[in-house]
Each structure stands twice: as structure tokens, then as C-alpha cells.
């Protein structure tokens, strides 16, 4: 492995082909339960055999396409999980550093063996082991709403980005544009999440799998039927309609992600914009497509 001394802090260590942050070696009072939960999830759902279309990457890169990436860019993926985004981005950039504090970093390491420009880094989003103003682009999809100190994580992302660098984000939305019924269904689901996420691992996994079959599949099928009969506009009003073109592996994984995670936050567009602007970003662009809300910010 390269020492990458131009962008990484001096006290980084290499252990079993993984960069280990010095801060990670010490005790940290962050979201231990959440980190362990995602470690369990991504170790099981390793995404190793998913294709590009199955990972739904087109949805996430709709307003900042991969063709806009630069070959000389150095990129950090905060909350890299199994590396599904990293592997897709790899051909378009100089190098990418996948950061994750959980055991899934070992899955990431195994999944990127054939990629010479991808590097695993075990560290916290709140303590990124990179030199200030050294990174061209940071990506963090579906991660920061699970972190206890999201503000600190965004501050760190801003710190390591160069001026005019980009931050591609996805935060869970707070259903601000949805109906009262939609929000009520979510509130019930959130209560269920708080119960399931505290269950022992085996029972938690069985519960999530059961819900994916008994709740997710019927709603997704209903959304397909409604869209076909009454049109796309009405189909999207059904909860979970965004999964109509996803395979069951993704549905099952996302159900585990949704109900098995102890900590979850939700944001409005305004919340996200304020969070980014106060941490040094000068502009924020949102996509109007699913999933809500994703977009990019410029430092």
C-alpha cells in the first residue's frame, strides 16, 4: 500500500492492509451500537455480486453524473460500507479512500482487491484522518443521519475538502412534502424500528426479513399496480414506491437498514442546507428525484 503522505495525517497506521486512524485506536464515545449494527449488516449483505444497475447508482448521480468526475481527483467515501459506490466511481478518479468505523471495512477490503486505486480506512466520520484541504470530492450516501454528532462529521468533511471541492450527500428526508397519512405510517414504522433495533441479532434479522416479505413486497406491488392503472404520479404516493425496480436483495437489505439501526435522524431541505452552509459550504444543489434528499454542495 502507498503511504499517501500528501493527504493523510502522520499518525495513520497500516494493519492487515487497512489504514487505521490513531483516533480509532483510542476509546471513542460515539454511536457504538449503530457502528456494530452496520458492521453486522454489511458483513451479511456484502453487495459483491450486485451490478451497476442493481445498485441504483443512476438515481444518486442524476445531477452530478460520473462523467463529470475528474481523473486527477482524490475522493473520500465516508461510510463506505461494502464499497458498492467506491467500485463504481473507481474508473473515473485518481484514488478513493473508503472510510468506515465498523467491521464492514474488512468486507470493503475484500471487495476491492482488483481495484488498484481504492484504499480501506478504518476511522470515524467525526475524526477523518486526512490533511485539511487535500480532497477533491467527498461522498456520503445514507450515512450521516445515523451518526450521533452529524454536525461534527459535516465539519470534518468540509475541513478535508479543497476550496471549490464537492460533497455528494444523501440524508433521510422528514416527509415534509408527504401527506398526513404517509407521515402517520412512518411514525408507526419508527416505533417498530425502535423495538426491532434492540433485539438480539438473529431475532432482529428474522424480524426484518419477515417485514420485507409481509410489508415491503405488498406495498411495492401495490405501487406498481396503481402506477400502471392511474399513472406514475399516483404510484409514487404509495409508501416504498421507489423500490418498484429493485430486486429482492436490495429490498431485503434496505429493510434491515431501516428497521435494524438504533439511531436515525430525518431532515428537511432547509435543515440540510443550514447544516452545510454553517460548516463552510457556499452552495447546495438538491435533486428532485428519489431518494430524498440527495444532492451536492460546493465548498
UniProtKB/TrEMBL annotation:
Domain of life: Bacteria
Any GO BP: methylation
Keywords for the protein's UniProt record, in alphabetical order: Methyltransferase, Transferase
InterPro entries documented for this protein: Methyltransf_11 (IPR013216), SAM-dependent_MTases_sf (IPR029063)
The Methyltransferase type domain, residue ranges: 76-169
GO MF term (any one): S-adenosylmethionine-dependent methyltransferase activity
Record keyword Methyltransferase present: yes
Name of the protein described by the UniProt record: Methyltransferase domain-containing protein
Organism from which the protein derives: Fluviispira multicolorata
Amino acid at each position: 500500500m502507498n503511504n499517501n503522505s500528501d493527504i493523510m495525517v502522520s499518525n495513520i497506521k497500516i494493519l492487515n492492509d487497512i489504514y487505521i486512524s490513531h483516533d480509532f485506536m483510542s476509546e471513542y464515545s460515539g454511536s457504538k451500537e449503530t457502528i456494530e449494527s452496520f458492521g453486522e449488516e454489511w458483513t451479511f449483505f456484502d453487495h459483491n455480486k450486485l451490478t451497476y444497475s442493481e445498485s441504483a447508482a443512476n438515481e444518486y448521480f442524476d445531477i452530478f453524473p460520473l462523467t463529470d468526475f475528474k481523473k486527477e481527483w482524490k475522493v473520500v467515501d465516508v461510510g463506505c460500507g461494502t464499497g458498492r459506490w467506491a467500485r463504481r466511481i473507481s474508473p473515473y478518479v485518481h484514488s478513493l479512500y473508503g472510510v468506515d468505523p465498523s467491521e464492514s471495512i474488512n468486507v470493503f477490503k475484500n471487495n476491492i482487491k482488483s481495484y488498484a486505486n481504492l484504499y480501506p480506512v478504518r476511522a470515524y466520520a467525526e475524526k477523518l484522518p486526512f490533511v485539511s484541504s487535500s480532497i477533491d470530492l467527498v461522498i456520503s450516501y445514507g450515512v450521516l443521519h445515523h451518526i450521533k454528532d452529524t454536525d461534527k462529521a459535516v465539519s470534518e468533511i468540509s475541513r478535508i475538502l479543497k476550496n471549490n471541492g464537492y460533497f455528494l450527500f444523501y440524508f433521510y428526508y422528514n416527509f415534509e412534502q408527504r401527506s398526513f397519512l404517509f407521515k402517520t405510517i412512518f411514525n408507526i414504522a419508527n416505533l417498530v424500528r425502535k423495538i426491532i433495533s434492540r433485539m438480539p441479532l438473529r431475532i432482529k434479522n428474522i424480524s426484518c426479513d419477515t417485514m420485507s416479505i409481509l410489508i415491503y413486497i405488498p406495498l411495492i406491488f401495490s405501487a406498481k399496480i396503481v402506477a400502471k392503472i392511474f399513472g406514475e404520479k399516483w404510484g409514487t404516493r404509495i409508501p416504498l414506491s421507489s423500490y418498484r425496480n429493485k430486486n429482492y436483495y436490495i429490498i431485503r437489505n434496505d429493510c434491515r437498514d431501516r428497521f435494524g439501526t438504533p439511531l436515525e435522524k430525518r431532515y428537511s431541505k432547509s435543515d440540510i442546507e443550514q447544516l452545510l452552509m454553517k460548516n463552510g459550504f457556499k452552495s447546495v444543489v438538491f435533486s428532485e428525484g428519489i431518494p430524498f434528499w440527495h444532492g451536492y454542495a460546493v465548498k
